[in-house]
Amino acid sequence: MIIGRKGSGKSAICQQLATPNGHQGASILITPDDAAGEEIRRFELQGVTADTAKALIWRYAFAVHAARHLATHARIAHGRRIPSSVRALRAFLRANGESDDDRLYDRLRRGASGLQSATLSLKAFGVEAALGVNGASEGATASRQLEVLEDGVATAFADLGCASSHPPLLFLVDQLEQVWTVDADSHALVTGLLLAAKHVTGHYGSVVRTALFIRADIYDTLNFGDGDKFHSDEIRIAWTHEGLKDVALARACASLGADLTSDELWGRLFPPSVRGEPTTEYLFKRALPRPRDAIQLLNACRSVADERGGPTITEDDVLTATERFSRWKLQDLAKEYLVNLPFLRSLFPLFENTGYVVMQSALEARFETRRDVLHREFPAYTESLTPQGVIDVLYGASFLGVRRGSDVVYTGGTQAPPLPGEDEFHVHPCFRPALNSLESVELPTFLPGQRRNAVVSQAGLVNYTTGSDVGLSINRDVRLLGEVVGACERLLRQLVRSGLPEVTREEVQLQIGRVVAAAGEARAQLGGRYSPDIQDHVLAASGYFDRLAAQLSTHGFRDRPVTRRLEDEARALIRSLGGAAGGGSGSDSAP
């Protein structure tokens, strides 16, 4: 079982295996369409479960395909001496209308009719009497008919000596997503396929192999009793940046019809860096790790350059293409999971125009504002539409990653889902431009001339909302600016042990650094022709600390020491304007 997300390369691997260079033996490609899928979904047998019934119809399809292969293969590869077992297969195919190269749907329709009514002609194998006697159920009768057919196929393989003379016959099953819907019959359709594939490889031995190409979102929803027996058969497709670079280079060489080196591709055709980051790292971090997305993003860069009329791709071209690509991918993500997660698109507004770092408490608060609407629009999914359910869904779709140690990990490979106690999540860089979530949190910008937004009204504090007091001396102005700088220094020290996400901590540090720089500029202007209003400056710093604390609280950092310290320093600056000696700021040990 080759398991991967849409666009990860499953079908490309399948098509390659279907060629002589991909598999040196014979291969049979099975891609069910809507009609075939509907035939399998409708197939039922009294006396057996839905999974078992679907497994039986799949086994019939495999057996008939194998019989048709042997009927031709024996003549081409084994000469004129045809064993009686092969002649029996040819007779079976003629008697049951399976000699023609019909569509899969026609084969399934005939098989379903024969298995359900016990009307398969098995005379070629020496079985003439009806099998559905003595009160046997439909399921038992169908199973017995299949055993006779499968034993006939196995005997023909053995008589021809196929095991020692050439590679095995390979069944390739792809495009199951074309027949998948969220219902029990679709679940049984895929589960039955897995059971049938394991059965035929065991029954026919080394002469038959199967390769099933299954989308991860389908496979991961399967839940059946023997599921644990398939883990050793799973191959998960996981792409690294290095692998995607190899794909990009190969596609570029094919597109240009010329050999390129990696340095030529990423240093001449593409700019060597984007915003100070190596171009490959910049690009592949902003695409989901699968070839289709990587190729689409690179093609978008080329298209932007073509629209501009440039011979090569510039840094601005990459930036423009990244925004365009992000909008495509947000739409594509909703379409990719439309069948299993029809509500996915309705979750995106929870992350629009906000920071890409999302704490669990903040996500819970945002979700509560939309809970009733979501439950009303998607009543069948109320069990999944909970805060934890949303986290699990978005992590599984690679929309959210989880902070784990010093890294942010996204689903794929061997990564475990979010665990209890993991409460910091990041929107994938692929979707951030489309959501306008370009910073870790949307912090207010410090404007020195901006006063407090709210009136301070506490015992012992003075409310200042007017211009500077003309009686203030320059010495007092210097002291007040020193209070602002001191508050910033204490906050910066607090940041080191704040527990904020690293990117958020750096952004808060940057904003506080601007407050320090503005205080330095104001001090340099004291006594000059355009001496600043220091009272306004202190009020602006105090108000900014309040707004910064409020914004951090909104993002789920309400209980962090640095948030409370911001509030404390804002109040301390107000007290300093009231003339309190020493400025009134707290110590580093304050909460």
Commentary on this structure:
The protein is of the alpha/beta class and 591 residues long. The protein is built from 21 helices and eleven strands. The strands form three sheets. Strands 2-3-4-1-5 form a five-stranded parallel sheet, sandwiched between helices. It has a four-stranded antiparallel sheet with strand order 8-11-9-10. A two-stranded antiparallel ribbon has the order 6-7.
Question: Which helices and strands occur, and which strands form pairs?
Answer:
Elements (H helix, E strand, L loop, with lengths): L1 E3 L5 H8 L9 E4 L3 H9 L7 H28 L6 H12 L8 H14 L20 H23 L1 H4 L3 E5 L10 H21 L3 E8 H4 L15 E2 L4 H16 L5 H8 L3 E2 L2 E2 H7 L5 H18 L6 H22 L20 E3 H18 L9 H10 L3 E5 L2 E3 L14 E4 L4 H4 L38 H23 L5 H24 L8 H24 L3 H17 L14
Helix pairs in contact: 2-5, 2-8, 3-4, 3-5, 3-6, 3-8, 4-6, 5-6, 10-13, 13-14, 15-20, 18-19, 18-20, 18-21, 19-20, 20-21
Properties at a glance:
591 residues; alpha/beta; four-stranded antiparallel beta sheet; elongated
Brief characterization of the structure:
It contains 21 helices and eleven strands. The protein is an alpha/beta fold. Strand 6 and strand 7 form a beta hairpin.
The stretches of 5 or more residues where confidence is low (pLDDT under 50) are 451-472, 579-591
Count of individual beta strands: 11
Strand content: 5-15%
- What form results from the Cα inertia axes? elongated
Q: From the helix content, strand content and strand pairing, which structural class follows? A: alpha/beta
Rg (C-alpha, Å): 34 Å
Q: What average pLDDT do the residues reach? A: 87
Oligomeric composition of the shown chains: single chain
Largest sheet: 5 strands, parallel
Give the strand order of the largest sheet, numbering strands 1, 2, ... along the chain. 2-3-4-1-5
Tell me the span between the first and last alpha carbons. 55 Å
Roughly what percent helix?
A: 40-55%
Number of continuous helical runs: 21
